[in-house]
Amino acid sequence: MNDAGTSASSSDLEAEVSRLRADLSALTKQLSSAGSHSYDAARAAAQQGVDRLRSNAQVLEDQVVERVHEKPLQALAIAAAAGYFLALLNRR
User: Fold this and answer.
1) DSSP track, 1-45
2) Is 75 exposed, middle or buried, given 0-12, 13-18 or 19+ CB atoms closer than 10 A?
3) Distance separating alpha carbons of residues 68 and 76, to the nearest angstrom
4) Which domain holds residue 14?
5) Integer-rounded Cα radius of gyration of the chain
6) What are the coiled-coil residue ranges (predicted)?
7) How many domains is the chain built from?
8) 75 in Cβ contact with 68 (< 8 Å)
């Protein structure tokens, strides 16, 4: 009689362990999917940021080139002054 009770509880435990394994497997798949989705979203946002920075840098470069063409002597004086100050900082 005791063996029948033990056998029943043993099979109940096996069934419960089997259900837990299935639940764990499903949870692992869900977490993997969520992590992959989060990674893809972060990567897309980072790529948009990089694209925006490149665009802004290109606009800034175009503006600088335009200014240099408009006022070449002023651009040369600014470049010389910047070089002089960088040389002073580099000595220290």
Assistant:
1) -HHHHHHHHHHHHHHHHHHHHHHHHHHHHHHHHHHHHHHHHHHHH
2) middle
3) 8
4) 2-91
5) 34
6) 10-63
7) 1
8) yes
